[in-house]
Amino acid sequence: MSNFLKISGLHAKIEADGGDKEILRGVDLEIPAGELHVIMGPNGCGKSTLAYTLAGREDYEVTAGSVSFKGQDLLAMEPDERAAAGVFLAFQSPVELPGVNNANFLRTAVNSVRRARGEAEMDAVQFLKTVRAATKSLSMQDEMLKRNVNVGFSGGEKKRNEVLQMTLLQPSLAILDETDSGLDVDALRIVADGVNKLRAPDFSALVITHHQRLLDYLSPDRIHVMAKGRIIRSGGPELARQIDQDGYATFLADAA
Amino acid sequence: MPAVTETREQIEKLGQSTYRWGFETDIEMDIAPKGLDEDTIRLISARKEEPEWLLEWRLAAFRQWQKMEEPEWAKVAYPKIDYQDLHYYAAPKKKPGPKSLDEVDPELLRTYEKLGIPLHEQAMLAGVEPEEGAEPRLPIAVDAVFDSVSVATTFRKTLQEAGVIFCPISEAVRDYPELVRKYLGSVVPAGDNFFSALNSAVFTDGSFVYVPAGVRCPMELSTYFRINARNTGQFERTLIIVEDRGSVSYLEGCTAPMRDENQLHAAVVELVAMEDASIKYSTVQNWYPGDENGRGGIYNFVTKRGACRGARARISWTQVETGSAVTWKYPSCILQGEGSVGEFYSVAVTNNFQQADTGTKMIHIGRNTRSTIIAKTISAGRSDSTYRGLVRMMPKASGARNFTQCDSLLIGDQCGAHTVPYIENRNMSARIEHEATTSRISEDQMFYCRSRGLSEEDAVGLIVNGFCKDVLKELPMEFAVEAQKLLAISLEGSVG
Ligand SMILES: Nc1ncnc2c1ncn2[C@@H]1O[C@H](COP(=O)(O)OP(=O)(O)O)[C@@H](O)[C@H]1O
Ligand SMILES: [Mg+2]
User: Fold this and answer.
1) Domain that holds residue B64
2) For A57, nearest residue in chain B (alpha carbons)
3) ipTM of predicted assembly, 2 dp
4) How close, in Å, is residue B8 to chain A by CA atoms?
């Protein structure tokens, strides 16, 4: 299935300070089923924007291009439909939901996608079992389930909570937006484990990162370098190691 | 983006058909002619076979009312009510006050079934499985008020064995006249305000509760009010008395059919808690709020007040207000007994053209009295909501404390929320704390939820319930579940 995820000529803009600001300027990217791809690129080049656009955030307006996901027109779908179809975005900055119990949120989310996927909903007992198994594999305290979603979580806890959601929602396309930033080595390994457990012939991942460290655990298939809203270079895992050593400067110079 | 707008429009079109209790029941009624004068009051009193003292009390209230002006200071606007254009008495034609359910008109029972209010004790005992880890639930005894009269009170025998009196107030007038005479109007005097005077003159029914010393009421007590007849005002009167060390939890729910014209509801609730007594009074109010253009709906002008007369008495008001076109309501506590405690937990939701002006009054009279106010206001559509709260520390209220927290959540940008705290401190050692916040449901929160598979409605529901959590947790469990559903329903289609 070469047509798992195909992004063609994607342009997206945002309305900021009264004017339009174009952020994505023709992104072309293909991820075959079963592969793990990486996007690297300097701050502000549009990585998060790409991630948000794939997940369906409304304030990014697509002005040209297309995205097909498992044969469907992804851009025509609502965010919750995309989630049901298997898209998952681990946010660079997870959002706080005051007063919303984490376990209740997770269960509502899991049952929403299960319903949409035509699967049976989980009752409280089943869910508790599933979630306990997941927190354990992520070395998370069960106590985090009782807290409010992301409220008062440390940076690392927030990232782990994202991975917990990913584990429970069983996506077929996981987009991780700098999930490794600010994590210590142990936490990093846990995040990588979370992704590796999902790896399967019908699961793909798009990992946004600045660091080779995470990639050591993930064995990516391809690395893409993004600059100024475009993919300017693609290559094998060695590309990431090169960036780790030399930074982005040479690529940017080449692209200019 | 267009896709979202479209769903929103679809939902908006559904508009107030989301009010699911809008059916009318076809029952033969005994209705007094429209209009209000002394003869109307004599007729009500006669229909209810009341003693002379009560008729005199009503007439005195009526004379006071005639001299009073309708209050205009609340931040609500509505067309003038023509008090001569209302019916003040409407009763299902069968003999009022049936002794058992078998005597109740089956059509009435079906009405309450439609509302999801089980009047059959069997059904109630069967109940629903409590959720994992929940405390075992108390059964609920129900008094159902249909227009002007109480039609059924369940579980009366069990309560009697415990020594608790729970009956329609008209029966209490007959069977326990000395109790009623002693306490009626002792917390809310007839002349307290325009609507309490009107209620005192024409009240038709309501519930009476008496818990003797040392008795913890073995079940939740509940009243359901339903306005059915056209152009009928509903003026019920509730009186709850708990003697030393007694306790009771009382629930009140309300519905009305959908109508074009507005209907008037002006109740009075009086609570009396003696030494170490506790009263928990919970309301889930979803009167018909009017349609999406602001037509119809209930005018809800209610006076609720509790008196903590004994030391360490506790009165707690919890309310979830989602209905009515216009709400004007300030459940209050008079904290007289030393160390007595008043609590007010409120969620008020307004949508479309609804207006709510609600809040509480905490009057600290005794030493070391304490009060807590947690008011959550949610405004959507073009609605307008005001929290108005008074905290008064009297000169003798040494060591008294109040904590007030008012939070507003706005949905969309055409609605309003206002917080108007009045603080009067006449004792240097009393402490008053006030915190207030206003927030909006952010795009970030919505997108985060939706990217996890939640629909727009579920996302709003979750965030709103989170916002109200501190109040909802004060409700008895089954009421809390009901309230959560109500919140979701009343906010349907309001996301913007
Ligand atoms: N909501 C927004 N409002 C204004 N500018 C934005 C917004 N989101 C992103 N941008 C701008 O778009 C550019 C790309 O941002 P982003 O996609 O977050 O980059 P990256 O994730 O690669 O660091 C930046 O210049 C950023 O400031
Ligand atoms: Mg980013």
Assistant:
1) 3-124+136-490
2) B447
3) 0.96
4) 13
